[in-house]
Amino acid sequence: MTLLRSTSRDESNVEAEDVIACVIDNTPINIDAKTITPFKCVISSAGTLQQDNQTAVIAIYGCWLPDHRLREYRYIMDQLFYYVYHTLDKLVTNDYILIYFHGATPKHRTPDLKFLRKCYQMINFRLRKNLRSVYVVHPTRWLRTVIALSRPFFSNKFYHKINYIYTIAELERQFPNNQLSIPVAIEQQ
């Protein structure tokens, strides 16, 4: 990840912001680093699977997503999506597993169906192909319904990669000795 910092003003007298320069689907994108800084903890690498030491484990925490009542919510979510995508692209070289922690996520931080569909459509073939499984930890009835309603937008292969995990104990059985950093609020559910 390249972080470009500019301390001078350009000729149009607009202050330059910190950006993360990346390429998504052959399109150069400048991610607004200042906007996403409070939300960078949404994604983290949890190492690799103990069984093969090659499959990356990536954690996404719903409780740290932006509040959809924020005035610039759509802009923040777009920038955050680019950041997550860019991070995945850098972390994933082979197969990977995605663990989405939904526990302790208030309703006002849950992304809507439109945003989820857009994310799925923007993910390139390599990332879709290398995704081994998606684990949804502490899914609510609402989230399971949204995923079920989204099925027409997902490929059958992708839909069958989705697994629900209802307890932290079940997660620990599935991923023993993994370096998952689980927020206290999620552990208490």
UniProtKB/TrEMBL annotation:
Specify the superkingdom.
Eukaryota
Every copy of the CRAL-TRIO domain together lies at 70-189
Q: Read off the PROSITE patterns from this record.
A: CRAL_TRIO
Q: Supply the name of the protein.
A: CRAL-TRIO domain-containing protein
* UniProt organism field: Adineta ricciae (Rotifer)
The record lists the lineage as: Eukaryota, Metazoa, Spiralia, Gnathifera, Rotifera
